[in-house]
Q: What sequence folds into this?
């Protein structure tokens, strides 16, 4: 069994895929989960294996409790006890004002972004906590700079779901700090990934980049670097912290 075992939800594309590749290069056995895009997940696994790494892809909707249980059970069986979790799977929906949002949309966004992260964190803590016979570990939650900016006229629901992630990060970090588990978050700014197409504006980074103090969008790899640092022993006294990877925004 490998001693560094990571689960990255939504590891088939974007920030999750970059994090998976970097983690594998740093010696983690990696399990990525994905929702629908099997070919993208296969591509990440193939790239890692080509470089001599160990990786596994599991289809699992983080918003479904049974899927989350199956994801963690599969990792227990195939790779061993998880030591690092990246709560990365997240969605946003078409840009609109709050007064246009219906309950179904709000349920989808909060289920994937908030409940999904809670369920995965719960399963990770059950395995990592020294109070429950575990050997400790680290969790990184993907928030967003939108949690601070609010995303007006675009997706206040998404921003609020990331605000919930910030609070969960702070609270859970304190809850499990004495049990060998560190919990931190990363708040990316505008990063070049497919997520902006889900909002109906694939070119969003180009539109908003002039408002970023560094005057450019970020790359997924730049976010992955922060995630990997927070999971590593180099951040051994850091917990309950959120790192903004947002070009100064
Ligand atoms: P992305 O390119 O849209 O990729 C999303 C990933 O999540 C895909 O692997 C997708 O799987 C998976 N996924 C979506 N819903 C899921 C569900 N219910 N269960 C399991 N997996 C699911 O997203 P990204 O831009 O890399 O974003 C990653 C994280 O960073 C998200 O939490 C996002 O909110 C956050 N973030 C991104 C930005 C940005 O500018 N890109 C900024 C701030 C924060 P499939 O491939 O199967 O669809």
A:
């Amino acid at each position: 069994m490998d001693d560094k075992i990571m689960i990255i939800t939504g590891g088939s594309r974007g920030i999750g895929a970059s994090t998976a590749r970097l983690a594998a290069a740093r010696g983690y056995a990696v399990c990525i989960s994905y929702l629908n895009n099997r070919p993208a997940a296969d591509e990440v696994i193939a790239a890692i294996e080509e470089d001599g790494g160990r990786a596994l892809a599991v289809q699992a909707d983080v918003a479904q409790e049974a899927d989350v249980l199956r994801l963690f059970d599969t990792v227990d069986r195939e790779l061993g006890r998880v030591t690092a979790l990246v709560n990365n799977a997240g969605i946003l929906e078409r840009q609109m004002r709050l007064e246009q949002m219906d309950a179904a949309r709000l349920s989808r966004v909060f289920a994937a972004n908030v409940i999904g992260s809670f369920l995965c964190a719960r399963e990770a803590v059950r395995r990592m906590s020294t109070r429950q016979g575990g050997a400790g570990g680290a969790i990184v939650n993907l928030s967003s700079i939108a949690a601070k900016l609010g995303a007006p006229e675009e997706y206040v629901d998404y921003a609020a779901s990331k605000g919930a992630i910030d609070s969960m990060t702070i609270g859970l970090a304190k809850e499990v700090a004495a049990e060998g588990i560190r919990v931190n978050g990363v708040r990316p700014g505008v990063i070049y990934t497919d997520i902006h197409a889900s909002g109906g504006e694939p070119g969003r980074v180009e539109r908003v980049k002039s408002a970023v103090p560094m005057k450019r969008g970020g790359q997924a790899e730049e976010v992955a670097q922060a995630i990997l640092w927070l999971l590593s022993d180099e951040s051994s006294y850091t917990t309950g912290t959120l790192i903004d990877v947002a070009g100064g925004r």
